[in-house]
């Protein structure tokens, strides 16, 4: 599995003509960074229709199809790996943490420690790791209900996430959010949204605030926002509204579509008139990129460019990551509609195994080191479970806390003073 | 010159705000009322429109994090001219014209508020907020709770609410009960210019999401304002109602335009010897239960007046509160006066009877005072 053939450009529109020759920012940056740039060649089987261009006339951006689906011809082994040893270890550890954590969640759910709606991320780790490990602490991540691994990649401690799932006071939201509503101000993880499409405008707003701080408040702020959402969301009105406004106002945001082909039981092909989501970027004036979401190195290359674009102030990017969830939509989903052949096709391209193979083949790490990481993560997750298990549930007084930032919102009590000023209001633990 | 002003106001360090505030207060000079009445220079008059405009102006001058976003707020000077002059003063970055994307720009406002900016999101009417209600409820109201205090949302959603004149069913819906039922929101509804100024300033300074329900027909109405109101730090407390007219025979609660109707009804009733106490709620959530129940304990009779639909309305809540807290003090059943339980018709005569009128309030008050046959007996 090579990460170097990550991009392929579309042929220019016959009518648009020769002035399209200007190379896309993606291509040029990639040829610059990869030592064996000449290996960028067209792959044999391109499934996506390339007969028509999606470049709007007069637009400098173009849609780039990056490493389309699976029948990619394997390149000869490249001489130089695209990542360093430290990066390989970091990526591997992050993906293994995500996988092990999610597997433990399933176990805990069936033992009754976790309840409600739990949506697991198995199989999609390459997308989370590929993007989030490139971000700084100040950058924001907005996610959906499938947000455990985004939280972990962004740096929220596993114990805090597990305690939140158990509904304990030591959780990252003190048990008030739950599986679908992970928030961490410290790590700039702002959700956790249950409604699909709800996080996209919020992410656009976070990007807006970054630009506003820089341009109106004159603060040094180049924080970028990365919004994760699924294929089903790409048919929602809010998605298009935000593509428009993000491009219109040139906001520092990356829209990442985790296209796992299924929205609960609704296949993406059945729900969408044009299933190629990456093509929906250029009509709004931003580049649309398609990348193999099962390969963390390819995702990382695309992420570097997209995040770099946003940080330089060049505007948003739409990245479609073709990925797959190995489990059902949630732990309550019997997952009967998906074809076992399709499932096995993707499980054979497990991102963790792929990275392991790549790292060992390129001599970056020894197998024993990876096994040591596996063991370390196993222990970490076990400790997280113990921590969560032994934490107390929230006290009753917590029920009324944090409804408002200014608790005078609870109004005026019978004595004419604000209710929150009464020390018995939440038994003394409310922040007034 | 305008460019210079824009720059100095744009990068607001609070040190420079003192001068700006001074300028802001000077700007608010007595404005001739729409009806062209002339008063002596002792009483200053201000329309609700100018009250809102001046409140926005002063808050934007004081805090550079405040910005206004909505359809037609910039170049068009505001769909109802509430934001007149603000684009020239503060520039397009702080007075943002948006495309017609309520869900999108409301969500953008919420996301910006997560990061400490203080957006004022204008809905052309609150009917359009239905397209964005997911963000008002789910990402604004609930976020502080779901994140357990990590993320507060200092945002204001404002715009005209309720019936206007002849605008039909889809433009006349009153949403006070809808938003007031949701924990995590504060819902305000001003009546006079003083209310408009004080409550809007309080809303913008508040660290929580506030739904600010104005009324289109009140925008042009003039009210006397005192010097205190014109001060740039004038804020009204959220959660406190105002007793517009003291009385002892019957309590009439109302908000927004209906306060004016209630006051007129009180005048008529006073000729019949019924001394009505009129309460201007100002704050629908949190409801000032104390002022209402204290008044009922004094007068022993209550009617609630609102423009919106009767079922599950604000009046229903007030009635329940009074029954819970001061049932023994009631000498007569509580009556709710609300709009007719039909989508607003277009024809003028039908629209008039679909909304509460002063005569309805007077009749209800007389029934409560046993001056006429009670409704239940005549049914």
UniProtKB/TrEMBL annotation, chain A:
<protein>
    <recommendedName>
        <fullName>Pyruvate dehydrogenase E1 component subunit alpha</fullName>
        <ecNumber>1.2.4.1</ecNumber>
    </recommendedName>
</protein>
<feature type="compositionally biased region" description="Polar residues">
    <location>
        <begin position="25"/>
        <end position="35"/>
    </location>
</feature>
<comment type="subunit">
    <text>Tetramer of 2 alpha and 2 beta subunits.</text>
</comment>
<dbReference type="InterPro" id="IPR050642">
    <property type="entry name" value="PDH_E1_Alpha_Subunit"/>
</dbReference>
<comment type="function">
    <text>The pyruvate dehydrogenase complex catalyzes the overall conversion of pyruvate to acetyl-CoA and CO(2). It contains multiple copies of three enzymatic components: pyruvate dehydrogenase (E1), dihydrolipoamide acetyltransferase (E2) and lipoamide dehydrogenase (E3).</text>
</comment>
<keyword id="KW-0786">Thiamine pyrophosphate</keyword>
<keyword id="KW-0560">Oxidoreductase</keyword>
<dbReference type="InterPro" id="IPR029061">
    <property type="entry name" value="THDP-binding"/>
</dbReference>
<dbReference type="InterPro" id="IPR017597">
    <property type="entry name" value="Pyrv_DH_E1_asu_subgrp-y"/>
</dbReference>
<dbReference type="InterPro" id="IPR001017">
    <property type="entry name" value="DH_E1"/>
</dbReference>
<dbReference type="Pfam" id="PF00676">
    <property type="entry name" value="E1_dh"/>
</dbReference>
<keyword id="KW-0670">Pyruvate</keyword>
<feature type="region of interest" description="Disordered">
    <location>
        <begin position="12"/>
        <end position="35"/>
    </location>
</feature>
<feature type="domain" description="Dehydrogenase E1 component">
    <location>
        <begin position="94"/>
        <end position="394"/>
    </location>
</feature>
UniProtKB/TrEMBL annotation, chain B:
<dbReference type="InterPro" id="IPR009014">
    <property type="entry name" value="Transketo_C/PFOR_II"/>
</dbReference>
<dbReference type="InterPro" id="IPR029061">
    <property type="entry name" value="THDP-binding"/>
</dbReference>
<comment type="function">
    <text>The pyruvate dehydrogenase complex catalyzes the overall conversion of pyruvate to acetyl-CoA and CO2.</text>
</comment>
<dbReference type="Pfam" id="PF02779">
    <property type="entry name" value="Transket_pyr"/>
</dbReference>
<dbReference type="Pfam" id="PF02780">
    <property type="entry name" value="Transketolase_C"/>
</dbReference>
<dbReference type="InterPro" id="IPR005475">
    <property type="entry name" value="Transketolase-like_Pyr-bd"/>
</dbReference>
<dbReference type="InterPro" id="IPR027110">
    <property type="entry name" value="PDHB_mito-type"/>
</dbReference>
<keyword id="KW-0670">Pyruvate</keyword>
<dbReference type="InterPro" id="IPR033248">
    <property type="entry name" value="Transketolase_C"/>
</dbReference>
<protein>
    <recommendedName>
        <fullName>Pyruvate dehydrogenase E1 component subunit beta</fullName>
        <ecNumber>1.2.4.1</ecNumber>
    </recommendedName>
</protein>
<feature type="domain" description="Transketolase-like pyrimidine-binding">
    <location>
        <begin position="46"/>
        <end position="221"/>
    </location>
</feature>
<keyword id="KW-0786">Thiamine pyrophosphate</keyword>
<keyword id="KW-0560">Oxidoreductase</keyword>
């Amino acid at each position: 599995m090579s990460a170097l053939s990550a991009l392929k450009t579309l042929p220019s529109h016959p009518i648009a003509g020769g002035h399209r020759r200007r190379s896309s920012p993606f291509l040029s940056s990639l040829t610059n960074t990869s030592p064996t740039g000449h290996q960028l060649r067209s792959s044999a089987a391109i499934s996506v229709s390339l007969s028509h261009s999606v470049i709007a006339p007069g637009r400098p951006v173009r849609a780039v199809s990056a490493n389309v689906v699976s029948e990619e011809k394997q390149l000869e082994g490249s001489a130089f790996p695209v990542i360093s040893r430290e990066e390989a270890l970091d990526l591997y550890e992050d993906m293994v943490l995500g996988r092990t954590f999610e597997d433990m969640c399933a176990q805990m759910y069936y033992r009754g420690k976790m309840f409600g709606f739990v949506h697991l991320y198995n199989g999609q780790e390459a997308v989370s790791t590929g993007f989030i490990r490139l971000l700084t602490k100040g950058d924001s991540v907005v996610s959906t209900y499938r947000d455990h691994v985004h939280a972990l990649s962004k740096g929220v401690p596993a114990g805090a996430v597990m305690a939140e799932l158990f509904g304990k006071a030591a959780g990252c939201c003190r048990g008030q959010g739950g599986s679908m509503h992970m928030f961490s101000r410290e790590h700039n993880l702002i959700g956790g949204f249950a409604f699909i499409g709800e996080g996209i405008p919020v992410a656009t707003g976070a990007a807006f605030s970054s630009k506003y701080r820089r341009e109106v408040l004159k603060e040094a702020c180049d924080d970028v926002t990365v919004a994760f959402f699924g294929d089903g969301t790409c048919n929602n009105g809010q998605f298009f509204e935000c593509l428009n406004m993000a491009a219109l106002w040139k906001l520092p945001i990356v829209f990442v579509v985790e296209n796992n082909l299924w929205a609960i039981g609704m296949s993406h092909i059945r729900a969408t008139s044009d299933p190629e989501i990456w093509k929906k970027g250029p009509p709004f004036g931003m580049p649309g990129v398609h990348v193999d979401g099962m390969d963390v190195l390819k995702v990382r290359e695309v992420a570097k460019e997209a995040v770099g674009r946003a940080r330089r102030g060049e505007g948003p990017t739409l990245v479609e990551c073709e990925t797959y969830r190995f489990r059902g939509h949630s732990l309550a989903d019997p997952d009967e509609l998906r074809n076992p052949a399709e499932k096995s096709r993707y499980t054979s391209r497990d991102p963790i195994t792929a990275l392991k193979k790549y790292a060992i083949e390129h001599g970056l790490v020894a197998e024993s080191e990876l096994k040591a990481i596996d063991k370390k993560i196993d222990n970490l997750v076990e400790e997280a479970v113990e921590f969560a298990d032994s934490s107390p549930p929230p006290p009753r007084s917590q029920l009324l806390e944090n409804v408002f930032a200014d608790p005078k919102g609870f109004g005026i009590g019978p004595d004419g003073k604000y209710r929150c000023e009464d020390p018995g209001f939440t038994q003394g633990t409310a922040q007034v | 010159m305008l460019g210079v002003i824009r720059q100095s106001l744009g990068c607001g360090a609070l040190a420079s705000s003192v001068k700006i505030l001074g300028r802001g207060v000077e700007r608010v000079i007595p404005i001739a009322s729409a009806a062209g009445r002339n008063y002596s220079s002792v009483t200053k008059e201000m329309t609700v429109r100018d009250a809102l405009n001046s409140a926005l102006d002063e808050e934007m001058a004081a805090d550079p994090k405040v910005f206004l976003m909505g359809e037609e707020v910039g170049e068009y000077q505001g769909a109802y001219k509430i934001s007149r002059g603000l684009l020239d003063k503060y520039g397009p970055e702080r007075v943002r014209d948006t495309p017609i994307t309520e869900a999108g720009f409301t969500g953008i406002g919420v996301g910006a508020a997560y990061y400490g900016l203080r957006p004022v999101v204008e809905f052309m009417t609150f009917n359009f907020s239905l397209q964005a209600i997911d963000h008002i409820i789910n990402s604004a109201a609930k976020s502080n709770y779901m994140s357990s205090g990590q993320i507060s949302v200092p945002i204001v959603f404002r715009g005209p609410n309720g019936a206007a004149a002849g605008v039909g069913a889809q433009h006349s819906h009153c949403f006070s009960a809808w938003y007031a039922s949701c924990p995590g929101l504060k819902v305000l509804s001003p009546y006079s210019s003083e209310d408009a100024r004080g409550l809007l300033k309080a809303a913008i300074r508040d660290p929580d999401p506030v739904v600010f329900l104005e009324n289109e027909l009140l925008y042009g109405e003039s009210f006397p304002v005192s010097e205190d109101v014109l001060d740039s730090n004038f804020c009204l407390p959220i959660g406190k109602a105002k007793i517009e007219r003291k009385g002892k025979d019957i309590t009439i609660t109302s908000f927004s335009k209906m306060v004016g109707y209630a006051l007129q009804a009180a005048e008529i009733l006073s000729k019949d010897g019924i001394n009505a106490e009129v309460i201007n709620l100002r704050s629908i959530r949190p409801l000032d239960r104390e002022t209402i129940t204290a008044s009922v304990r004094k007068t022993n009779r209550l009617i609630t007046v609102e423009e919106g639909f009767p079922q599950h309305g604000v009046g229903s809540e007030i009635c329940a509160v009074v029954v819970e807290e001061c049932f023994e003090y009631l000498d007569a059943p509580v009556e709710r006066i609300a709009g007719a339980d039909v989508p607003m018709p277009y024809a003028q005569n039908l629209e008039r009877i679909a909304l509460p009128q002063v005569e309805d309030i007077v009749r209800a008050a007389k029934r409560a005072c046993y001056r006429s046959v009670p409704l239940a007996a005549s049914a």
